[in-house]
């Protein structure tokens, strides 16, 4: 089933660009380091009413269309990894095309966000595979370039097939999701069992789930947790799904929590140039990843 059948073209992409979702996250979760700085006031001032409407509309669509069946269909399609094969560097070039249709006040292209995240992790002395996770964590956003609407690429992720937590942003929009009328999906545990572990839980479809499966053979397990759950805010910020988590998940979520501030708050105006950074990152990618990745 193509998403285009469900909604009109504009309705597919209510955000001015996919980064607007992350800008909104910074308003929900301001950088603790800048809470008392002028920056915060300015952030709010720059955030126009119309942009807020775009974000709200984005969540309306996301919560309406991310059903259990939708997730199964997307997994069946994308987890075959039969779209193309390319080196990560080509994927980043491909991702940077996303800036083309964005507005002039987007200051960073996708590659810059990835490098700022990975450099902040590297500067804090974390293991090299975590630096690599910083570099590739948003690579799944290539889904946009395969024609997926914004609401099937970015946004907070959440389990499908069980009751929605009111800790998920705009929970009222779940009333529009057909799954709300399916009693099997609306008990607290839904199709799952108590503390079954997140491995057996289906998450809403997006760039996190896609890159997680893509990287499964190559990255140490804590890194895979960072990839799969970095947008699962209702759990890593609010512990809303403890009833599905295993002991191991709880242990591993310490890594997800360690990673999150690097994703949100690593903007660095004095970032080293790509020419300077290139030798390190080429060696890092060669250490863990094959020459070509299957998308
Ligand atoms: Fe992300
Ligand atoms: Fe990110």
What's this entry about, in short?
This protein is mainly alpha-helical and 295 residues long. The protein is built from 13 helices and two strands. It has one domain.
Description:
With 295 residues, the protein is mainly α. It has one domain. 47% of the residues lie in helices and 1% in strands. It has 13 helices and two strands; from the N terminus they run H-H-H-H-H-E-H-H-H-H-H-H-H-H-E. It has helices spanning 9-12, 19-28, 38-46, 49-65, 68-78, 88-96, 110-123, 128-136, 207-215, 221-229, 233-236, 247-265, 274-288, and strands at 85-86, 293-294. A two-stranded antiparallel ribbon has the order 1-2. Helix 7 (110-123) packs antiparallel against helix 8 (128-136) and helix 9 (207-215) packs antiparallel against helix 10 (221-229). It starts with 8 loop residues before the first helix and ends with a strand. The relative contact order is 0.16. Residues 1-5 and 100-105 have low confidence and may be disordered. The structure holds fe (ii) ion (2 copies). One fe (ii) ion (FE2) binds next to loops. Its cofactor is Fe cation. This is Inositol oxygenase.
The value of Rg in angstroms is 19 Å
- How much helix is in the residues? 40-55%
N-end to C-end Cα span: 20 Å
* Sequence of strands across the biggest β-sheet: 1-2
Task: Specify the overall morphology.
Answer: globular
Provide the residue-averaged pLDDT: 89
Provide the list of bound ligands, each named once.
fe (ii) ion
Low-confidence blocks of residues: 1-5, 100-105
Q: Biggest sheet: strands, sense, closure?
A: 2 strands, antiparallel
Number of helices: 13
Instruction: Give the topology string: H per helix, E per strand.
Output: HHHHHEHHHHHHHHE
Number of E strands: 2
Structural class: mainly alpha
- Tell me the count of domains: 1
Percentage of residues in DSSP E strands: under 5%
InterPro entries: Inositol_oxygenase
Pfam families: MIOX
Main location: cytoplasm
Keywords: Cytoplasm, Iron, Metal-binding, Oxidoreductase
